[in-house]
Here is the input.
Amino acid sequence: MLTRHAQANMSHDVQRRTDTAVWWSTAVLGIFLAALFTWLLPQATGLALVGLWLLGGALAMLSSGLLSLRRLGVRPQWGLLLLGQGVGATAVFLLLLAA
Here is the structure.
């Protein structure tokens, strides 16, 4: 007979809070990097501006995903890595298209 232990539920709740914290910190870092890129390149308009904002988000996603691979107690964030690669490729495409 199998029984459920309360500890298993508690660790799942802690893991969910940790995952949420990783995603929120990624969003804040992405907004900060995008604002920094916009400040450093004020002449960017249109597609280049959108590309800069996407590039900031992609760098934040990739860095958070890579850091989660090495941290103890945090589940690896493979979704952030894959999403960061896709958003980064889109950002580079938009920057090349705007040039």
